[in-house]
Design brief:
By secondary structure, this protein is of the alpha/beta class. It folds into two domains: 2-360, TIM Barrel (Alpha-Beta Barrel); 365-450, Immunoglobulin-like. It contains ten helices and 16 strands. The protein has helices spanning 2-5, 24-36, 63-66, 76-84, 97-106, 149-159, 201-221, 245-255, 310-322, 341-357, and strands at 38-42, 111-117, 163-169, 227-231, 260-263, 290-294, 326-330, 365-372, 375-380, 383-388, 399-402, 410-413, 419-420, 422-425, 428-432, 446-450. The strands form three sheets. Strands 5-4-3-2-1-7-6 form a seven-stranded parallel beta sheet, sandwiched between helices. A six-stranded antiparallel beta sheet has the order 8-9-10-16-12-13, covered by helices on one side. Strands 11-15-14 form a three-stranded antiparallel beta sheet, with no helix packed on it.
């Protein structure tokens, strides 16, 4: 089962290693989390300016895959210098946080995951502990009314009742206490520190203090934060990089007692839910989890990006929810701060479907069975739902077979609200399709099943 889950670049922690939180308030909050089902994720930063992969082109050890779209320069030192200086031209002057939030609200997103700082160390919040940020004088965006990007977008999303998850990178490849010159290995040799923390405890302690201070800024000054979404799994005790996260989380929960933490790929008490990346498990995961998947094919903006269709997004959402998880859909804003029209169009189509069928998504839990062929099942209390992931071009006929092995006394089509005629067959429930739908290819018809 674990092998089927770990398919992303960073994979995810194993289900059988999950640690149930000891605090009953966190367990209760995880029930809330599992009700939400759909998050909007956004990767936005200096890398957006050139349509680059986020952060990773800085790392020589990851150059083969992260620099494969860089066709204007071959010298790795020039590439890294160009990347580091992108803060001097980051200027998303057309940024309108309320438009981002409107897209999320009208399409059924329940929480928002935003990259306040990626591994490159550039902050989209006004941190007091670095000058590498949107509000610094060397960044042209610093005079804009939304120069503190994180504050502006968090305020806009909260105003629409959408919960907030702050993405924060534990490694910081701009911080001199992580990538320190003149140490055991060259700057940017790999994704880890340039020294062994155990051999340089004072240097590592400076980095730990810096990291705690920045995370506390987010929790204290940009709250209420519902989720602290921590990336960079190499920063963990078993890898010799202990930032004493439990110590920080204890202090953070003095401010927000129900703060969830997603310490990605690390496991243990601070990974309150697990996070497959760019992949969906082959079967159910019976602990809290969330797949982060892109609407396009990359997390950061690309100038020639292709986007998934509305049908693909709906089927992806159904795949995730029927296996017990949440879906975090990533849209990467363009360099000017606007959202790609084709991405929004696809998401709007998903939102149209959710307005008619969201009852079968939000607040549901794993059903038994959870899927059979193209039909997925969810449940809410004693009510079950059959969600038919109809392939592109496959049109409905006079009947539709729902492979439901349990008792059923009343079936209702959510999109029309009418009761359906059906009979029990060996293969399941043979449902009479309403004439209005015959010959059509809906994205995913949903049937409520009541005993």
């Amino acid at each position: 089962m674990a092998d089927a889950i770990i398919k992303g670049m960073h994979g995810c922690s194993r289900e059988d290693e999950y640690v149930v939180p000891a605090d009953p308030r966190i367990r209760e909050r995880l029930e809330w989390f599992q009700d939400q089902k759909l998050a909007l994720m956004m990767h936005f930063g200096i890398y957006s300016t050139l349509g680059l992969c986020e952060s990773w082109p800085l790392v020589d050890g990851d150059a083969e895959w992260s620099r494969n779209e860089i066709d204007w320069e071959s010298d790795p030192e020039i590439i890294k210098e160009q990347y580091r200086n992108l803060n001097k031209c980051f200027n998303p002057a057309r940024l309108r946080p309320e438009v981002w939030a409107d897209v999320a609200a009208r399409n059924g997103f329940r929480y928002f995951i935003f990259t306040t700082k990626h591994h490159d160390g550039f902050c989209l919040f006004d941190s007091k502990y670095t000058d590498y940020k949107t509000t610094s004088p060397d960044c042209p965006f610093h005079t804009h009314k939304y120069a503190d990007v994180t504050k502006a977008v968090f305020d806009a999303f909260r105003a629409r009742g959408i919960a907030i998850a702050a993405y924060f990178s534990k490694p910081d490849w701009h911080c001199p206490w992580y990538w320190t010159p003149g140490m055991d290995k060259p700057i940017a040799a790999d994704r880890n520190p340039t020294y062994k923390p155990a051999e340089h405890p004072a240097l590592w302690e400076s980095f730990v203090e810096f990291t705690h201070n920045q995370m506390m800024e987010l929790v204290r000054d940009y709250g209420p934060i519902d989720i602290l979404w921590l990336d960079g799994g190499q920063v963990r005790p078993s890898n010799g990089q202990d930032i004493r996260l439990s110590e920080f989380v204890k202090k953070a929960r003095e401010i927000n007692p129900t703060l969830l933490t997603a310490d990605r790929t690390v496991g243990g008490e601070n990974e309150n839910y697990i996070t497959p990346e760019q992949s969906v498990p082959a079967g159910p995961i019976r602990v809290p989890w969330e797949s982060c998947v892109t609407v396009g094919y990359a997390f950061s903006y690309r100038f020639k990006e292709r986007y998934k269709t509305s049908r693909q997004l709906v089927h992806l959402l159904i795949d995730v929810v029927c296996r017990g998880g949440n879906l975090a859909l990533n849209i990467a804003p363009q360099p000017d701060g606007t959202l790609p029209a084709d991405a929004v169009k696809s998401v709007d189509g998903m939102g149209d479907w959710l307005r008619e069928n969201g009852e079968a998504i939000y607040g549901t839990r794993l059903a038994d069975p959870n899927e059979d062929g193209i039909t997925a099942f969810t449940k809410k209390g004693g009510v079950h739902y059959a969600l038919v992931r109809l392939p592109e071009g496959e049109r409905l006929g006079e009947t539709l077979t729902i492979p439901w092995p349990h008792e059923a006394n009343r079936l209702t089509l959510l999109s029309l609200g009418g009761e359906l005629a059906f009979e029990r067959m060996d293969a399941g429930l043979c449902v009479k399709v309403p004439e209005i739908l015959r010959g059509h290819n809906p994205i995913a018809p949903v049937i409520r099943i009541e005993k």
